[in-house]
Amino acid sequence: xxxxxxxxxxxxxxxxxxxxxxxxxxxxxxxxxxxxxxxxxxxxxxxxxxxxxxxxxxxxxxxxxxxxxxxxxxxxxxxxx
Length: 81
Hints:
Blueprint: E1 4-9, H1 14-30, E2 33-38, H2 43-49, E3 55-58, E4 61-65, H3 70-80
Parallel strand pairs: 1-2
Antiparallel strand pairs: 1-3, 3-4
C-alpha cells in the first residue's frame, strides 16, 4: 500500500502552490502519493484550516503549514518507506 500525504490547499493560494511544487520531488523520491484537497470545497475543512493553508498531513497528523518542513517530511518518509 502506498503512503499518502494530504495537502490542504486553495486554488488561489501561492503558498499552497509553492508547497506542492516543493513536495513533489520528495514524493517521487520516496514513492508516496500527494492528495491535494481544496479546503474551499468543504465548509468543514474551510472552517478547520481557514487561513492556515497550506497544511501538510500524514495519517491525520500535521507535518507542517505555510512552508514545507523538508527535513521533517524527509525523516517521516524515510521511516514509513
